[in-house]
Amino acid sequence: MKIVMLNGQNHKGSTYHIGRMIADKIEGENEITEFFFPKDLNHFCAGCYQCIEDVSTCPYYEEKKKIIDTIDAADILIVTTPTYCMHMSAPLKSFFDLTFDLWMAHRPMESMFRKKAVIVSTAAGTGIKSAMKDVEDCLFYLGVPEIYKYGMAVQAMSFDGVAADKKKKIEKKTAILARRLSENTAPSIGIKTRFMFWMMGMMQKKGWNSSPIETQYWKEKGWFDGKKPWK
Ligand SMILES: Cc1cc2nc3c(=O)[nH]c(=O)nc-3n(C[C@H](O)[C@H](O)[C@H](O)COP(=O)(O)O)c2cc1C
Q1: Is the residue at 217 inside a domain?
Q2: Residue 82 is part of a domain; what is its CATH number?
Q3: What is the domain count for the chain?
Q4: Among 6, 41, 184, 186, which residue's Cβ finds the most Cβ atoms within 10 Å?
Q5: How far is the CA of 17 from the centre of ligand 1 (A)?
């Protein structure tokens, strides 16, 4: 399987290590590709809306394309972020801002609806839930239907500093998650994804779009005629 790690930090601390443990434990001949933010996409969205009409005119298109193409081909996404001020890290948020055109409200990528994802966050103590919810919202609106979360209050500033009993727990939990992801089955499409996709389709049909190009995209995909991106 193709696994892509999207790391909301450049360094390899507790959060990265936990994410990598999941990736390494997934059974089979896997290809693991890693991106680190901001290293691999050091930009903020310029708010120019160029992507709505033509993504290739985004000022950061070339750098973005490499990452998006890799994501497109992936089976599993592992998204890691340390909890920073109760939320996901700023570079990860910036990455998601730069995927705005691919959200369900605009031109979602078909392949997103066939992926599974895991979100990993660590904190000293609090804010993990809200940090993971940030990422979950983004993945959901990008179309990912099956999302797992693993948060851990590590009370450490590096992976070496994590207590032995916590590391044991991490070993166990990452193995459970990896086993689940090793099952090469299609992701289950929940009612929330189905409903949101339907609603976004209705909006596009009514012309409540950001550009007629979006409605044309939905039409060409056959999504107005009952076709679904997950089939
Ligand atoms: C800028 C910054 C903000 C942080 N904010 C929080 C926070 O809101 N809640 C918390 O419990 N820990 C917070 N921490 C601590 C980290 O979340 C924690 O040490 C985490 O495990 C670091 O992960 P890493 O080893 O992958 O870098 C913060 C650390 C930094 C550097």
Answers
A1: no
A2: 3.40.50.360
A3: 1
A4: 6
A5: 15
Arithmetic mean of pLDDT over the chain:
97
Q: What are phi and psi of 10, to 5 degrees?
A: -80, -30
Mean pLDDT of 77-89: 98
Q: Is the pLDDT confidence value at 184 over 90? A: no
DSSP string, 161-219: GS-HHHHHHHHHHHHHHHHHHHS--PPP--HHHHHHHHHHHHHHHTT-SS-HHHHHHHH
Within a domain: 93? yes
222, part of any domain:
no
Give a yes or no: residue 148 inside a domain.
yes
Q: What is the pLDDT averaged over residues 37-61?
A: 97
Is 81 touching ligand 1 by the criterion CB < 6 Å? no
Q: Which domain holds residue 78?
A: 2-188
Q: Region 176-186: what's the mean pLDDT?
A: 94
Task: Give pLDDT, residue 13.
Answer: 98
